[in-house]
Amino acid sequence: xxxxxxxxxxxxxxxxxxxxxxxxxxxxxxxxxxxxxxxxxxxxxxxxxxxxxxxxxxxxxxxxxxxxxxxxxxxxxxxxxxxxxxxxxxxxxxxxxxxxxxxxxxxxxxxxxxxxxxxxxxxxxxxxxxxxxxxxxxxxxxxxxxxxxxxxxxxxxxxxxxxxxxxxxxxxxxxxxxxxxxxxxxxxx
Length: 189
Hints:
Shape: globular
Order of helices and strands: EHEHEHEHEHE
Radius of gyration: 16 Å
Number of strands: 6
Structural class: alpha/beta
Number of helices: 5
Largest sheet: 6 strands, parallel
């Protein structure tokens, strides 16, 4: 486990509505794992973390860091640009892992920013392949990879069926977390 009894060394999806706090939560997770501090009351072990915050700017990341921690851990690394899974993203992540002795966590915020294109029109196969390429990294290097994603606007009795895209996304992942508001209009999740 990267976060004991909460986040294991595998590929997980974190999905939620727009502006529900997914990126804030992931930045907090990254900081806690890099420092070896508790996350939601669960133990972590100090480890190297890569956060691909692909919808942010360096200034925005710095502003959020200041609000979440007094000291930025040296083993927390950021990137605001990356290739897509059809390109060299997996090679970029593997190169990072090879250069750092104790990697434990890679967060990709958001999945849409690194998606390949479904050239043959088979969306399920494309979704499964994109997520599967990143799952291979999690499995091979025994790290946790989290893909941040969005929910559909349509409600479903099973929150996991609200994850945007085909079931190939959830099917290729080892697990998923869904952030939902208890009632529409709530400011807390």
